[in-house]
Amino acid sequence: MEGMSRIAPGTVRPLRLLSLDGGGVRGLSTIIILRHIMKNVSRGLGKPVEPRDFFDMIGGTSTGGLIAIMIGRLGLTLDQCQTAYLKLSKRIFNPSRGKLNAIGRAKDFLLADGKFDYKELEDAIKEVIVQDGNLMMDELLQDPESPCKVFVCALRTGNSETAILRTYENDEPELLYDDCKIWEACRATSAATTFFDPIKIGPFEQEFADGGVIYNNPVELVHREASVTWPGRMEDAMLISIGTGSAPGAAFEGNIKRIVEAMKEIVTQTERTADNFLRSHEIMANRDLYFRFNVYHGLSDVGLEEWKEKAKMADCTQTYLMNGETRRKVRYGKRVIKSLQMVCFIGTTDQSLLHLRKVLIIGAAQEYSQSLDYEYRLHRYDDIDEPARQTFEWIYNDLDAGFSSWLQNDEKIFWINGKAGSGKSTMLKFISDDPRTTDLLKLNRSSHTIVLAKFFFHDRGSALEKTFTGLLRALLLQILERWPKAALSVARSNVKSFRTHISLAEGIKTWSEADLRQALDLVKSHVEPGAFMCFFIDGLDEFDGEDWVIADFFLKLIVPPMDFKGIGTNWKVKLCLSSRPHNSFRDLFQGFPSLSIHEKSKGDILQYVSSRVRESARIERPALDSDDATIGNLIILIVERAHGVFLWVRLVVNDLLQSLADGDSISELRARLNMFSGDLESVYKRMLQKVRPRYLKETALLLHLVEYARRPLSLVGLFEAAATRLDTSSPSFVSDTDREVSVDLITEGSTAITDEALSRRIRSRCGGLLEIQHTTVSGKEHVTVQFLHQTVKELLARPDAWQEIFGVAPLPGSVVANLKLHSATLKLLNTHEKLVSNIDDCVYYVTVVEQLTMTVAIDLLDVMDQRMSTLSAGAKDFMQGHWSREYWKQKSGEPPEEWLDNFLAFAIAVGLSSYVIAKIRLRPGYVSRKKGRPLLHYAVTRTDYPVDAKLVTALLECGADPNKNYQEETAWQLFMSNVRDFQTRANISRIAGPFQPISEAMAAMLKHGAQVNTKVNNNYTGYWTRPVQIFLKNPEVIGEYFSLNDVKSAVHTLVSYGALIDIKDETNRTALEDAAWYDQLHDELLDRPAPKPPRPPRSPLRDLATSIWRHKINRS
């Protein structure tokens, strides 16, 4: 780490810069904030690190300058710096009279040139310098060999110009570089004219005072100094600015008026500097390369000299650090640092660093790849059978097939289509693995790096196996594994887009579809000229969405994006896609090379059938001539009837060979063959006819449970669900008949049943329509049950299938299946193994039941909470508090905030709104009595769901206060800060009219008294603004989230509740100025007088009191 913090020759690591404001004793707040930042940075980098070893430049003014010298020039740790600073403050800012004796203190000031003794300041500084014995008292400030450059700001009293005292040299004119001592620099930067006498330095006795008079916030100087010191390296530089409180301190209350006015002006100028810097470096802020930390509330009562108020300063600063926006900045900063770490040593020419560069590239790519990987990603690929011997060879040799020529030419898409069961997946696995594919791709691209990636959609698999999210994670993962430079290229260009998921140390294991699309776009935009992509994607018809949506995605994927000059980038990709021949795919892929596999596989089928039948005849019936013409005729008949469907062939041949082994003659085999038509349904029906009639009821139940399972069921889980009896405590909509549908398998007192016993039961009950699959994930074997083929699942989905095709009695409804699955999942829950996925399954099944029955499953969810509470109480390493804290820890990888969570809070977060509404209406007083984080705060910050207006309204009606402050933010402020994110989630969730619930929730909160003109953190700029301006800032960004009608509707709603359009936000702009981007809306606001805000609704308690009072009056 230490080596990576230094700027070695030939490297171009992004710079890390630190700016520290002045602020008297309130510099303690600076140290506390900096300790918090460095603690998070150290955790992210995996090793303790101090500012001197991390930052390339530290600049400070006044007490910020003192801290800069202590941690940068003297090399103190932050613990040592804090101790020294407290001692120094006590010694310096210690007036002879008490705080309450204002008259006496004013007298002292009038009798002295400065309020405090400058000699005390000098002596205190000198003691700090020599305390560890490594430096002399008169040590010079200069330190040219240090990798951490430090400067402090002072004021030339002769001409009132800024003076920079440096530990280093650059191209700027030298100022006392060979003369200024460390203690003199400290005195100069902290010699506030209202506190201390100026100091004279150097042979010409030049006089200096506190630089805070001009640059109390030195952020502009830090940026300028770095630009001069490292020309051309500011594009990716990260700058952190730390303040000491926005409000002016009550310096020596009651003292001389000019001191108070001077301090107010300094603090006002400090924030004005921050505002101007943000506006002039907006790109830097938008890329999350500039962060401003400043305690906005609580320090106004702390005078700049009141060292005894250290407890209050610590309290205010720690409260600020708990603020949601502050935590967001720290997390983003930490991830940005991690991302910037990736681009260390790119382009180095120093041979000694080449190995380190390689390690960094590989390590960064591996870490990023881990965050993209997911369980069962290769499940479908591993499940696909290898092709029969000597089959599919024609794909490379048949000129009419066109595949070999496509690999060599510039055509972008090759579409393999075929009937269900024709072998498309087997074909795609075969050609994506065969080295001839890569060889042919390289023929005309010898100078390119070929990057192959594959994905197999799987409708019967987990959610990620059939969605865009799973597809994009798999593609990005393989791109980065095979082309590690991609991660570095993207990180260098746009750290913000890679920051969120770059570090597993952060516990980031989940990705949104929007994040993944952006990441892929960045890869496309920054691909190197020598890279060539070829993707193999199977099963487009098994995508969990419309055919045209997935097809359109791939049609856009092949188009190179344009750079800012309108020139296409180096993105080169070929796509080999496979699907059934749906009309939508035929239309969209028209004009691209394609082949219909079922029309080309007759020779393969003949090879497969001939090999298996003749081999079996030779083994099972040695007396029978395997070359007999009758066998040959049977083989031809099978091939002709198959119509290119390999699955039909495999199942029919298995059946016929079993009959052959049982002693059937060839003529009997022909008769048996005639029982099968050329479709798979007839085969499935024939397979079920082998099941003994007494098993058919169980057969139907097992198939039904697999059909409705959220993801592949474990073998034990399937039979646990089948054995579940829905007793009298089950919901009333479950009939008595359905309660009895179960399998008498697992009973109390029985010994554990083995997987082999359960597997035998599957084979005997399901006739081969269900298959047992063994997979290994993270070194552990998993046994799951799935349908033989996708066509079995599709067949069972037909309403008439059970009676007409299978000839079994109708099954119990899907409600019962979901209830059984919920009950079994809950029963098999344990505290750690697959806790998150099992809880998610339980929630899913309950949600389905609620949707099907139009009722709220209160009892089911209460039981789930009780079950998990019991489990967590007995778990040794479970997190303290409600069990949901352990759920969130396992889901995100890091401990959640301590908010005093409960089951209602969990239910809100996972989308169980109906349950929450029902529960709070039964006990409305609970909403206002909940300790810790209010429920309304949870409702407006759900990360995986759009805002639910009905839930927000119900909470408000039951007593939730939109203006209640928790950790420095109200629910209303959080709602407005997240309003763009709500819109994004709504679009991803495919909600029709996604702005409507946002509008309804906003109106409900305003109706219940939300402070319409409060300050709101803008998550996209890092600065506070007004609610109405959230919808008006940066129209090019807003356009990605809202339509013009959405913006107008929101603005008019806010104005109707009293939003002021002529008050300024932190960027010094008004809503009316922001509305200038929208001509019509701007004119409407000008013409519309701002109405008086409506009265907030009366509280229920007040209404009750009024009713009682009126009742007494009437009785009297």
UniProtKB/TrEMBL annotation:
Residues 18-223 form the PNPLA domain. One of its GO terms (biological process) is lipid catabolic process. A motif (DGA/G) lies at residues 210-212. A motif (GXSXG) lies at residues 60-64. GO terms for molecular function: phospholipase A2 activity. SUPFAM superfamilies: Ankyrin repeat (SSF48403), FabD/lysophospholipase-like (SSF52151), P-loop containing nucleoside triphosphate hydrolases (SSF52540). InterPro entries: Acyl_Trfase/lysoPLipase, Ankyrin_rpt, Ankyrin_rpt-contain_sf, DUF7791, NPHP3-like_N, P-loop_NTPase, PNPLA_dom. A motif (GXGXXG) lies at residues 22-27. The keyword Hydrolase applies. It is an enzyme of class 3 (hydrolase). The active site is at 62 (nucleophile), 210 (proton acceptor). Keywords: ANK repeat, Hydrolase, Lipid degradation, Lipid metabolism, Repeat. The keyword S-adenosyl-L-methionine does not apply. Pfam families: DUF7791, NPHP3_N, Patatin. PANTHER family: AMELOGENIN (PTHR10039), NACHT DOMAIN-CONTAINING PROTEIN (PTHR10039:SF5). This is phospholipase A2. It comes from Phialocephala subalpina. The lineage of its organism: Eukaryota, Fungi, Dikarya, Ascomycota, Pezizomycotina.
